Amino acid sequence: xxxxxxxxxxxxxxxxxxxxxxxxxxxxxxxxxxxxxxxxxxxxxxxxxxxxxxxxxxxxxxxxxxxxxxxxxxxxxxxxxxxxxxxxxxxxxxxxxxxxxxxxxxxxxxxxxxxxxxxxxxxxxxxxxxxxxxxxxxxxxxxxxxxxxxxxxxxxxxxxxxxxxxxxxxxxxxxxxxxxxxxxxxxxxxxxxxxxxxxxxxxxxxxxxxxxxxxxxxxxxxxxxxxxxxxxxxxxxxxxxxxxxxxxxxxxxxxxxxxxxxxxxxxxxxxxxxxxxxxxxxxxxxxxxxxxxxxxxxxxxxxxxxxxxxxxxxxxxxxxxxx
Length: 323
Ligand SMILES: Nc1ncnc2c1ncn2[C@@H]1O[C@H](COP(=O)(O)OP(=O)(O)OP(=O)(O)O)[C@@H](O)[C@H]1O
Ligand SMILES: O=C(CO)[C@H](O)[C@H](O)COP(=O)(O)O
What we know:
Blueprint: H1 7-12, E1 18-23, H2 30-41, E2 46-50, H3 59-65, H4 77-88, E3 93-99, E4 104-111, E5 116-121, H5 128-131, E6 136-142, H6 144-158, H7 163-181, E7 190-196, H8 201-207, E8 210-217, H9 232-235, E9 243-250, E10 257-266, H10 268-282, E11 296-297, H11 298-322
Parallel strand pairs: 1-5, 1-6, 2-5, 6-7
Antiparallel strand pairs: 3-4, 7-8, 8-10, 9-10, 10-11
Ribulose-5-phosphate binds next to loops.
């Protein structure tokens, strides 16, 4: 693969718009996993859209109708599709706006395409025609208890709900989640599953340490090699924490997947070495997403690997069009 001088500049001057779809339940960690791509390319080149903006009904109406926002038909997926086609063609759209503070709609706003657009929410690629518009798709799938702990905390703090309201809503949403949101996992390019750390739930929660599994369809080859370096000296340092790394084959949704499973905390040098390799591959420098962190979690490592996958997908697209 030819090395671009500085891939950020190549992208800045390219007319291509790269769409990344991130599906998952409310508060499941979607933005947490895609933040690194904005850290690498900057806000000028990366923007995001929440599919929540495409709700058809406000909170009060949904409650009167006895439906949840997880129902396909409670969302204007046709408009989402038209908007994504326009954005891909470089056109500015008028995007609807949903306001979580009170569960109502705001004035639609103009949204101009950036070079990467992250579309995240309950149904970003819930139909075949939507799925066909994306260049890369991710499904975020924390196990039940983890997801509900995060949702309770987030909805109480940021969306003005009380705990009983969140619990009631959780139970009401569950069947719709499995019927309308979960099937996107079957067609995602990458699936992230999260469970409590095997090194202890409470300590893990305090330090944001979870067992994170990144699965991708088993492939013939990777676009570009990337090394995961672990310095053996680090393993014996006083400040080292426990961690485990494994790679397994499994068949969720009847697909042959390979998965990297990370639990615990690694020394930061491991991840800095990957950052240096991404700098070398892209010409973008410096990449310092985890600057100042004393330890690196599975979430951090998976974030970086996903960014590397997305960058490679985008480089491959450029190379393909240049031929
Ligand atoms: N990997 C993670 N490690 C630790 N905490 C996490 C992780 N992912 C999510 N959380 C917790 O869940 C909260 C919600 O995460 P995030 O905003 O990424 O979810 P989301 O799916 O993007 O939410 P939304 O419903 O707004 O789309 C975070 O503020 C954090 O407390
Ligand atoms: O599943 C969700 C996505 O985040 C929300 O519950 C949905 O957007 C409705 O929002 P609200 O509860 O604020 O009316």
